[in-house]
Specification:
Strand order of the largest sheet: 1-4-5-6-7-8-9-10
Protein name: Secreted protein
Organism: Mycolicibacterium gilvum (strain DSM 45189 / LMG 24558 / Spyr1) (Mycobacterium gilvum)
Oligomer: single chain
Keywords: Signal
Strand content: over 45%
Order of helices and strands: HHEEEEEEEEEE
Amino acid sequence: MARRAVTVAACALVLAGGVGDVAPAHAESDVALNGVFTARSDGLWAKTNEIMVYQQDVVATWTITSSCTTFQDCTGTVVSDQGWTADLVYQSQRWKAVHTIENWQRCPDGSTARGEQSFTFWAARLDAADRHDRLTGWDQTIGPSGACGVNRSLNIRMPFELTRKP
């Protein structure tokens, strides 16, 4: 009988609007990602079409600005010192930025093909207070199928880390 009373009381509290002042688990400001970061793609662990093939490390400086309307709906911009800018989207606790690299893949006949580079990253530790200081994920670039007369797309994937600059 005591359990039923607690359940009825809880329902009454909700219907009366008594829990309306409770903050969500993640406030919008907790999710937004802003600042200057070092972006590093680790070529030692790179895979080309799922085969371990060493690639040179890539290190860049990113300036990130974002805002959120809810803890699940965030957008922003990444500006890289490598000369590109990309839209940034937050979905399913992951950030994603995508841009096109012209003349990325060199073909034997001297022609080139573009590549679509995507960075997907998330907080290295969700429970840490500094979850916006170090993020980890993947840097993946994929060429179009049929480039260079080959039906299989060139796909290079490297571990990625984003670290806030002091």
